[in-house]
Structures
1.
Amino acid sequence: AQTVTQSQPEMSVQEAETVTLSCTYDTSESDYYLFWYKQPPSRQMILVIRQEAYKQQNATENRFSVNFQKAAKSFSLKISDSQLGDAAMYFCAYCYGGATNKLIFGTGTLLAVQP
Amino acid sequence: NAGVTQTPKFQVLKTGQSMTLQCAQDMNHEYMSWYRQDPGMGLRLIHYSVGAGITDQGEVPNGYNVSRSTTEDFPLRLLSAAPSQTSVYFCASSGTMYQETQYFGPGTRLLVL
């Protein structure tokens, strides 16, 4: 069965600095998708970034980028120039390729941003 | 375009009571799903639907029923609430079931006493 592990329950970063959140996953599939979702105190789940496993190029979205290491089954999120509004719970999620859209989530990393 | 909406935002139930959590989307999405979020855990899939009239079980379906009579609506029913169902419930939707990005509603917080 596929699993997603986030080994950092909490992280802290200074405003304007860079932070990296870790995520590893276990799967025997070759076709899948990975996501990072942000959950601020409002509880709304907000998509941060998406990576297709077949793409070698790492996805980027403004200040957010990923380091996707398929062989190592690692999918870390880098936040550059951290802002106070980045403070939130971040979830890594795996979606199996094929005729399904089921997401498997990690347990989350709570990110604090210090002014 | 409201996206994915959920009602109510918060509900308190007594053990054994029934209720329906509402979810609606106005994006003409085929795929809809329900997740629950418990402290210290990520979201877990309860039920999902790939289109009107078609539903299937997810990871934690026990105690919940769903139906999908229209494209827009995907209600989640608790027939006899238990304290173990105290959780935050999220509805999500995507265009199709083929690995498309899912968009989440704001969540419903449920407390079962």
2.
Amino acid sequence: EDQVTQSPEALRLQEGESSSLNCSYTVSGLRGLFWYRQDPGKGPEFLFTLYSAGEEKEKERLKATLTKKESFLHITAPKPEDSATYLCAVRIVSGYALNFGKGTSLLVTP
Amino acid sequence: DTGVSQNPRHKITKRGQNVTFRCDPISEHNRLYWYRQTLGQGPEFLTYFQNEAQLEKSRLLSDRFSAERPKGSFSTLEIQRTEQGDSAMYLCASSTTGTGEDEQFFGPGTRLTVL
């Protein structure tokens, strides 16, 4: 069965303290891996799509990478406004649904 | 440039009542998805439309749930005989075909509370 596991569940960082979030996946035929950001009470906001091992995408302080078993979301010198839940999702070749992990709740303190 | 919109934003109902939610996708998007999210969990897929055709349904979508997209534009999700376990955030997403087709853009959600 397809599985997406995110770690840690929660992460607290000081402003400027870089770190990484992990997304491990087990799927039968990966079409794409997706990262979203979700603020409390709002819908997920699209960040990145990754398709193949070795691929990297960057946006401001965020960089997403992909291997055959996992993806990392690296956050460089985070700011308090980066505080949110970060969701990882996969889509298989034969379907249209996104299968989400439970997310990592990130808190960045000044 | 408007994103995905959902109405109502909040709904409180009593157990056993029927509720209906509406989703208006991004105007040029012909693919539409419904998800459900409970506290501390990621969104769970419910169903998928391409234009007016419902092409994929999750096992989560019991016979009390029905979704429609009659003209390939907006969509409705109806829950009949609501139960307390139906309390959740109901999210709608849309995507295009062709370039960028894998990127699903989400609306703000409808939060349902069943008393």
3.
Amino acid sequence: AQTVTQSQPEMSVQEAETVTLSCTYDTSESDYYLFWYKQPPSRQMILVIRQEAYKQQNATENRFSVNFQKAAKSFSLKISDSQLGDAAMYFCAYRSGGGSEKLVFGKGMKLTVNP
Amino acid sequence: ETGVTQSPTHLIKTRGQQVTLRCSSQSGHNTVSWYQQALGQGPQFIFQYYREEENGRGNFPPRFSGLQFPNYSSELNVNALELDDSALYLCASSRTSGVYNEQFFGPGTRLTVL
């Protein structure tokens, strides 16, 4: 079974600074996807960024980028130029490449952005 | 385009009762997944429905059951409620087409079991 681990329950960052959220996962599969989701206090889960395991290039979406280390099974999220609106719970998630679209989530990390 | 909606927003039940939660998928989506998110935890996969058939199930007992309707909306039913069933229940819809398709989440239903 696949597992996702987020070892930092909380982090804080100053507005405009950069913060990195860490995630490790365990799988024996070679074809999979990794995700970072954001869940603001309003509760609706929003996809931040996606990484396909077969791609060597790290995904980027504007201020958000990942550091995908496949051999180490590590998948960290870097948020640059942090904004107050980035404050939320962040979840790392795993999905197998085929069949079910089941997502396996980590426990999440609460990010606070200080003005 | 209407996003994923869920009803009700909040619900309070007592132990032993039954509950039905509803999810309307995003337009054009044919797959609905349900997740249970206990307080302070990440969501856990309950099951998924694709074209009205269950297409994958997580580690949840049979008293958790579901339905998907021809319009691809879905229901989650929980029988014999237990205190540990108190959680935020999320549904997510996607358009399964053989390649990666993003799941879009609803706002959730907060269930409290007393």
4.
Amino acid sequence: AQSVTQLDSQVPVFEEAPVELRCNYSSSVSVYLFWYVQYPNQGLQLLLKYLSGSTLVKGINGFEAEFNKSQTSFHLRKPSVHISDTAEYFCAVSKAGGTSYGKLTFGQGTILTVHP
Amino acid sequence: DTGVSQNPRHKITKRGQNVTFRCDPISEHNRLYWYRQTLGQGPEFLTYFQNEAQLEKSRLLSDRFSAERPKGSFSTLEIQRTEQGDSAMYLCASSPQGVYEQYFGPGTRLTVT
């Protein structure tokens, strides 16, 4: 089974400052990793994913994340945030391959609040 | 591409009543997933379909829950004899065969009074 821990439940930050949202995972098998964003009263939108290849992945809206296998982490970063980035962010994993591929296990979420 | 749609968006029901939610996936997405999200938590997997076949169900899905996808297109999730603990956001997602990212609908928020 897989599990995901998002280390911060809330992250307040000022506009144009950098931000890092932390995610650690646990799994006995190879996994794929995802970050989703959820705006109020909306569904989840994929920000970026790591399946294979370069451990630094870039996503939409200027976000990027780095897969670190030795530390089992997949932290999300943005060098300069905007007010519009205020939302809840979820880290998720799925087993790589097998019959249950695609089933996502999510972390508890991190609420990012960007202040003017 | 109209995205994943879910109906209704909100449902208030009294304890003990039955409720049914509908999910329409993106056209030609053969995988469909149901998740439940309670306040302050991330979504939890409930079940998924490949075409009309239900391939996996979570232990979270008690006997009061049933899901169908009769023609491999839309899906329904029914909860019988609702309990207050069923209050949550029910999310549906779909994906094409062999693609790992899922596309989520806006969810159905259930409140059991």
